[in-house]
Amino acid sequence: MSGGGGVLGAGSSYHRFVHSAMEQTRLRTALAPHPSQEKFKCIKANDDSTVFGALSFSAPKVRLLRSLTIEKENSVQVLDFAAFSEPEYDLPIFCANAFTSPVQSIVVLDLNPLYDITLYKDYKEKYFRNLMPLIQKYSELLPWGGKITSESLRFFSPVVIWSIFEPTEQNHHVLYSALMDYYKVWLELADQAIKENDASKIAHNREAQHRYLTWRAEKDPGYPLLKKLIGESHAKDLVTEFLFEGVNSLGSKSFLDYFPEYARDDGTVNKKRSMIGKSFETRPWDADGEFIGGDDAG
Ligand code: BLA
Fold first, then answer.
1. Whole-angstrom Cα distance, residue 187 to residue 33?
2. Distance from the CA of 226 to the center of ligand 1, in angstroms?
């Protein structure tokens, strides 16, 4: 029950996840080190008690598979693990983010859809129709975390696990199991993915991924902590060249091209995370993955 013990439990479960996820990946595909690996393998924090772990690879069909862990003994534990396909595939983005302090763990685990599934029904059919049992399995054990930055919902799927819970061994055991279940599903989808040949569809996939990277590189909730731990310029490098690598190469549109509602009168980006505010007190999808939270926004 003690907070410290819980935090240690969280750290070991994040490392165990990264280790097992890499093992599962190697069983299915050939990983090559990503160019960003060399530069970021030894990130040094401002204080000696914080340890960073960074890994990045590419593989057939996979443009970037990267993992960041941060551990500060008896204080915080962070996991940021993501996988992005090559633009020739419209695969969802594997997204596992967890921030654990002595009092709580904040978790987002999802197969982030490349396309807004309320608009792209066929995309939803293709990927999410069959995945709904995943969320039925976890929605009680890892309950909806309450109000959330409204803009974030656009990047989430109906199987998203958004949860805030006490960092106990037991809860982290469940989280580990969910992380592995979701990652194995992503690996299976990657296995089955068929290469797109239509240039306009490939361009569409590329832009959708770039829009996602642009959002997260600018508005990720982890950024203030990264700045505190390694300083502003290193944090910026980590975000643009490692965590969301591709933001400066996959497309040329700017944050404000994609998200003009953040424009200030002087043409700069509004620093607020959200223009709409937080909403969605309860899970805004039903058991069939239909969005039911529409009226709640705003
Ligand atoms: C909080 N992290 C949050 C919250 C979300 C996310 C939704 C709750 C606050 C909010 O509603 O904005 C995560 N948001 C996401 C993700 C997406 C998104 C994954 O839009 C994807 C599209 N979190 C990390 C890392 C750190 C981290 C790497 O993933 C630290 C290095 C920290 N997250 C962190 C902290 C909070 C948080 C400190 C609580 C403080 C806050 O809300 O700003």
1. 18
2. 12
pTM above 0.90, yes or no: yes
| Residue 105, Cβ density class (10 Å: 0-12 exposed, 13-18 middle, ≥19 buried) | buried
Q: Which residue minimizes the CA distance to atom 16 of ligand 1? A: 108
DSSP H stretches of helix in the chain: 3-28, 36-40, 121-127, 132-138, 169-192, 199-219, 223-230, 232-237, 255-258
Per residue in 128-139, pLDDT tens? 999 999 999 999
Closest atom of ligand 1 relative to the 226 alpha carbon: 31
**Structure ipTM:** 0.98
Q: Which of 179, 218, 220 to mutate to test the pocket of ligand 1 (most atoms within 8 A of CB)?
A: 220
Measured from the CB, is residue 221 less than 6 Å from ligand 1? yes
287 vs 158: CA distance, rounded Å: 9
Domains of the chain: 7-280 (3.40.1500.20)
Which amino acid, one-letter code, is at 70? I
